[in-house]
Design goal:
- The structure holds 2 protein chains of 2 kinds.
- Chain A is an all-alpha fold.
- Chain A is 66% helix and 0% strand.
- Chain A is rod-shaped and about 100 Å long.
- Chain B folds into 2 domains: 31 residues; 142 residues, Glutaredoxin, CATH 3.40.30.10.
- Chain B starts with a helix and ends with a helix.
- The relative contact order of chain B is 0.18.
- The chains are: A mainly alpha, B alpha/beta.
- Chains A and B meet through helix 3 and helix 4 of A and loops of B.
């Protein structure tokens, strides 16, 4: 419970930062989220003329007060979805976001079932029915005599 | 897991693998992604891949297929960030004065900002119409980067050649103008 409370507290603390990033994005963060259309890397890893052009446009839009979404929408309108480093969180793009989660869940179930079976296989074989008390006593006597 | 359930799960897994394999085979067999440039290198003369893209000047769209049988075409793939494109586009602009009545000169501004592209055309005095292929999907069908890439299409719609050396321009222009 304490952990959950802490998690919620941290998540709430991050909300203003996320909102600030959306309202006033920096060139550096957008350079990491936008692809260079001719070099297949993000803008921050490219100094090609095409990348320089997009960096200049982004800087101009930031100076003009555009939000991160507005800037990205403008880029998508010019270059298509492939200009974004991450797929959009809507339509077919959702598949890319959810597929890893589904994969991890399926893998967890498979591992869980496998582990359970393995643990069962290692359990000791069931012991047979208890010995007759008279027979057990006789066996103990014999053993004592043998050792003595 | 009961035996019928296990058999069903195994059958499903096998069907899934076979299905994916069939999809792969189909994809390889129907792979048309060679691109016009590669087809030309292989000695083929493919039909020009169609496109229907918006004009940079905002005056509607250009449908390449609509020109088939009517006019030969010079297709110029360019972008405002491409420095060598300036020289080639200016050569095409000059050639247009001689061949413009028989050959349609069309630019394809690719992977570019349309506003920058319009400024670039104005700055370098390029007057032949261009379409905007921001995603580069049309360029990919013709062979992809690097640009500039200039193709010559006969009136029939068949691609005659690509400009590789300077002398190709007058040679191919004469050929397609007579087609």
């Amino acid at each position: 419970m304490k952990r959950l409370f802490l998690f919620v507290l941290v998540a709430l603390a991050l909300v203003p930062a996320a909102r600030a990033s959306e309202q006033h994005p920096s060139l550096a963060e957008l350079e990491g989220e936008v692809m260079c259309p001719v070099c297949e890397t993000t803008l921050d890893q490219s100094s090609s003329p095409a990348a320089q052009q997009i960096k200049r446009v982004i800087a101009n839009r930031i100076a003009a007060g555009d939000t991160k979404t507005e800037i990205k929408d403008r880029l998508v309108a010019e270059y298509g979805d492939a200009i974004l480093a991450a797929p959009p969180r809507e339509g077919f793009g959702l598949v890319a976001w959810w597929l890893p989660v589904v994969g991890i869940l399926i893998a967890a179930v498979v591992v869980g079932i496998g582990a359970r079976r393995w643990a069962r296989a290692r359990e000791p074989a069931p012991v047979g029915p208890p010995l007759d008390p008279a027979l057990e006593r006789r066996l103990d006597d014999e053993l004592r005599r043998f050792e003595g | 897991m009961t035996r019928p359930a296990r058999l069903a799960a195994q059958g499903l897994a096998v069907a899934l693998v076979v299905g994916l394999l069939a999809l792969l085979v189909w994809r390889v067999a129907n792979d048309n992604s060679k691109g016009v440039a590669q087809a030309l290198k292989d000695g083929e003369h493919p039909t020009a891949p169609e496109f229907h893209l918006p004009r940079l000047d905002g005056r509607g769209r250009i449908d390449l297929a609509s020109l088939r049988g009517r006019k030969a075409i010079v297709l110029d793939f360019w972008a405002s960030w491409c420095v060598p494109c300036i020289h080639e586009s200016k050569r095409l602009e000059a050639a247009r004065k001689e061949y413009g009545d028989r050959v349609a000169f069309i630019g394809v501004d690719t992977k570019d900002f349309s506003s920058d592209a319009r400024q670039w055309q104005k700055k370098h005095g390029i007057t032949y119409p261009s379409v905007h292929d921001g995603s580069g999907s049309v360029l990919t069908k013709w062979g992809g980067l690097p640009i500039p890439r200039i193709f010559f299409v006969a009136r029939s719609g068949k691609v005659v050649g690509e400009l590789i050396v300077e002398e190709d321009l007058p040679r191919y222009l004469r050929q397609i103008a007579a087609s």
